[in-house]
């Protein structure tokens, strides 16, 4: 089994290739931090995990997860629509 990605960054890119969201550590994102304070069962277990809570216009997006400093490992991307 592959090791989990220990310190990740997250980007959401639109169909034109423009970065519309980026995050390094989830608790540095004001919306994500406020959400995870109430939804503790969904809170990332590691403070260095990347997570964002955003509202996007309908369209096509790409989620890019990278390890900082060339780190490698397994990452999970979960996207929910409301």
Topology:
Layout: E1 8-14, E2 19-23, H1 30-38, E3 61-67
Antiparallel strand pairs: 1-2, 1-3
Summed up:
The chain is α+β, with helices and mostly antiparallel strands. It has one domain (8-70). It has one helix and three strands.
- Mass-distribution shape: globular
**Rg over CA atoms:** 13 Å
Compute the average pLDDT.
88
Give the count of structural domains: 1
Your description of this structure?
This protein has 82 residues and is α+β, with helices and mostly antiparallel strands. The chain has one domain (8-70). It has one helix at residues 30-38; strands at residues 8-14, 19-23, 61-67. Strands 2-1-3 form a three-stranded antiparallel beta sheet, with no helix packed on it. 11% of the residues are buried.
